[in-house]
Design brief:
- By secondary structure, the chain is an alpha+beta fold.
- It is built from 16 helices and 10 strands.
- The protein has a 4-stranded antiparallel beta sheet with strand order 3-8-10-9.
- α4 (89-101) crosses α13 (365-387).
- The longest helix has 23 residues, at 365-387.
- The two termini are 45 Å apart.
């Protein structure tokens, strides 16, 4: 079928957008039209709010919103909100939280909170000449030019921490950066940082044009390429950890505490040295992190990008978590670079985001950083615990069982039958289908 381009799609009503899509791409199928209408919120004020989060909205895409209880974090007991569709994420996090509940829980440390942004520019001049100009004139002018933008942030204890000139000419001809570090306190700070950087670009252009030390040819060569924050924040980092005596691990898998500790540490070591394993290992960590990031209205794409860049910071992709078993003490920890906010964005707009933050005791940005790191560490502990003992599929497939049954429109009676049937067995897709056919044929 040859589809036709559409003019003015954004100006159509919601129903107009749906009608065009269904007629143009789905042969007018009423089932699909009903799906889109089914998830449209009947509360018009709430729906209008949702519409304004994004563009060209034609429906709402819902995700399960679950709770992982019993998280003891720095002596405070919390229940974590998790928005995630993958089976067993909430269960694994909850199980890990309960495991560490009587062992002192999770401890966290904020290592740093610096966020970064850059003005990228081209200038055909000698690097030493530009550096002299930056140190003795430009840096001061950049700070002065952004005083109005940073005023409110400075009142809250944040602002621009430093500005550096970075010479990148060895990698790209005539390429330099103004690298700025920021403290945005409780906001994620993207708009604040980008506003400062755009002013840097304007001020740089003005000051170069007025600088007598630069020739006209040098002045004409200046190109402001872009002004943009970086989602890589290796100096905005939190550590979360758990520890106990090996003799207190008390795993219920049937192996000794010493063997469990040894197998667990070896699994972490493999993730540290083997990128193929590290990728899946870190993906599991981010299952826990992203679920809480989404539930609290933060940017999970930025969180993912930063974590994976940090995992490769030494030139080889590696594990974000680490483990030691020295002197009879089991210790497991994560250093997670993460930039999040608890004010601005969706935090005061999305009803469930407001609920999530209230549930967590209205945390500061640093407290939320800690909660996110703990969620990732707990998820990783749960996954590794299964991997080195019973295997990952036993628990995961039990959680996935209802997904399989729902695909075949199983009744509640049939679901209960399979819960009992797989009580002491590992769930497999093939066996579910086979047993369901037998059950229905009876």
């Amino acid at each position: 079928m040859n589809h036709k381009p559409v003019e003015g799609f954004s100006k159509l009503t919601k129903q107009g957008k749906i009608d065009w899509l269904v007629n143009e791409y789905l042969e007018g199928n009423e089932e699909y039209q009903n799906i889109l209408n089914q998830y449209w919120n009947e509360n018009t004020d709430l729906q209008k709010l949702h519409d304004e989060f994004s563009e060209n909205t034609i429906s709402n895409f819902y995700m399960p919103y679950g709770i992982a209880p019993n998280f003891l974090i720095n002596g405070k007991l919390l229940a974590l909100p998790m928005a995630v569709e993958e089976s067993s994420v909430v269960a694994a996090a909850s199980k890990a939280a309960k495991f560490w509940l009587d062992k002192g829980g999770f401890k966290t440390t904020i290592i740093n909170t610096e966020k970064l942004g850059h003005t990228h520019f081209i200038l055909k001049t000698e690097p030493h000449k530009l550096l002299h100009f930056f140190n003795f004139k430009l840096k001061k002018k950049l700070l002065e030019a952004t005083e109005d933008i940073t005023a409110n942030m400075r009142k809250r204890g944040g602002g621009i921490l430093d500005i550096k000139l970075i010479d990148k000419t060895a990698e790209l001809e005539h390429y330099f950066q103004l690298k700025a570090s920021f403290d945005t306190v409780d906001s994620m700070g993207a708009n604040f940082i980008n506003s400062c950087l755009e002013q840097f670009g304007k001020t740089l252009k003005e000051e170069v044009a007025n600088e007598a030390e630069f020739s006209q040819k040098e002045k004409d060569s200046l190109q402001i390429v872009m002004n943009i924050l970086s989602n890589y924040t290796p100096d905005c980092i939190v550590r979360a950890e758990v520890s106990c005596k090996i003799e207190d691990l008390k795993d219920d898998s049937g192996i000794s505490n010493e063997e469990f500790a040894w197998k667990f540490k070896r699994a972490v070591t493999i993730a540290e040295i083997e990128p193929y394993r590290a990728t899946t290992h870190n993906k599991g960590i981010m299952n826990g992190v992203d679920a809480v990031v989404i539930a609290t209205g933060n940017d999970f794409r930025a969180t993912e990008a930063c974590a994976h860049a940090y995992a490769a910071r030494n030139g080889k992709y590696s594990s974000l978590t680490h483990c030691t078993t020295d002197n009879g003490i089991f210790r497991f920890w994560i250093d997670l670079p993460i930039s999040v906010g608890v004010v601005g964005g969706l935090t005061n707009l999305h009803p469930l985001v407001k609920f999530s933050l209230a549930l967590l005791g209205k945390p500061s940005a640093q407290e939320l950083m800690s909660i996110l790191a703990v969620s990732g560490l707990a998820q990783n502990f749960g996954a590794l615990r299964s991997l080195v003992t019973t295997g990952i599929q036993k628990g995961h497939m039990k959680m996935h069982l209802f997904n399989i049954l729902n695909q075949f429109n199983a009744t509640e009676e049939e679901k209960q039958y399979f819960v009992t049937y797989f009580k002491d067995k590992t769930v497999s897709h093939h066996e579910v289908i086979s047993e369901l056919e037998k059950l229905r044929n009876k």
